[in-house]
Amino acid sequence: MNLIFGLGFSRSFRILFFSFFISAYTLDGQINKYEFSSSVDSTFVNYFGNGKPQRIQLFEFGLLNGPSWEFHSSGQIMIHNQWSKGLRNGLELTFDQAGKKIKSTTWLDGRLDGEELVYYPTGVVQKRTIWSLNLKHGLSIWYHDNSIEAAIYPYSRGKIDGDVIYFDSNGLEVSRKKYQNNELIKKMKR
Q1: pLDDT tens digits, residue range 107-156?
Q2: I need a surface site. Which of 5, 55, 82, 155 has the fewest CB within 10 A?
Q3: Residue (of 127, 166, 121, 154) closest to 143 by Cα position
Q4: Which long-range contacts (CB under 8 A, 24 or more apart) does 88-92 make?
Q5: CA distance 135 to 8
């Protein structure tokens, strides 16, 4: 049996009942820039069950535009990035639940482009990679937790090309492999 319509509730009660659900849904997701605007130019906010924000995003002409934040359920920021016309553009920072930076990435028109840094929990750089239009291009360097280089990978347009060198935690070369166009050519020992 339909309780809303079957029991003969007044028309005004039914309108009030349904408008409550519609407004509750709207309040959870969309904060409009102007009172009578559509969701084309707006700020989107959604929340965890504990009432803390999960995501805050700005829209212009229906596309993500401007800064964006995502949060851990504790309320600590997880990701902060920039958007332009629906594409990631600029610096993206990622944090762990304690608020320590764990990754830094550069975007250009929705593609990885520039330096990417990954960090150990201590804050020391673990990996440094150079990107060009979504392809690794240049040196990708891995580090031991004491900041000494652990491995060097040379990339050209997304493929390993050149000598890959491995180091021990004291910085002494352990081995070397020669690659050409992502193919192992020669393994050399030291």
Answers
A1: 999 999 999 999 999 999 999 999 999 999 999 999 999 999 999 999 99
A2: 5
A3: 127
A4: none
A5: 65
Would you say 37 and 43 are in contact if contact means Cβ atoms under 8 Å apart? no
Distance CA 47, CA 32 (A): 16
According to DSSP, the β-strands at 135-136 and 138-143 are unpaired
Length of the chain: 190
In 48-113, DSSP assigns E strands to 53-60, 63-71, 77-84, 87-88, 90-95, 101-108, 111-112
Whole-angstrom Cα distance, residue 149 to residue 136? 18
Q: Give the containing element (helix H, strand E) for 127.
A: strand 125-132
Residue type, 121: P
Q: Which residue has the tokens 């320590």?
A: 100
Indicate if the alpha-carbon torsion angle 56, 126, 151, 106 is positive or negative: positive
Q: Which DSSP letter does residue 137 get?
A: -
